[in-house]
Specification:
mainly alpha
Amino acid sequence: MMPWYGHNLSGWGWFAMSVGMIVFWGVTIIVVVAVVRALGRSQDYPRPPAGPSPEQVLAERFARGEIDEEDYRRRLSTLRTSTAPNTDPGPRTTSLPPS
């Protein structure tokens, strides 16, 4: 017959209970912090750009002497026209004259 120890836990029982309580409170704290951070994040503020703009890179290349002034101005005008909002009405259709 197996002896009963009443409500007392052995050494391993206390260890398991202590580890379980630490894990429980750790997970609880992590979840609370994650929820607070997610709710506190505002979508109103735009994120800063990841790096320098193409115009800044071009200006740096010009300042280092990698490109001359003519090349700089040509590339700068190309950048400014390609980054402008698209005002093109769409593809052009040509009609053939009646035969």
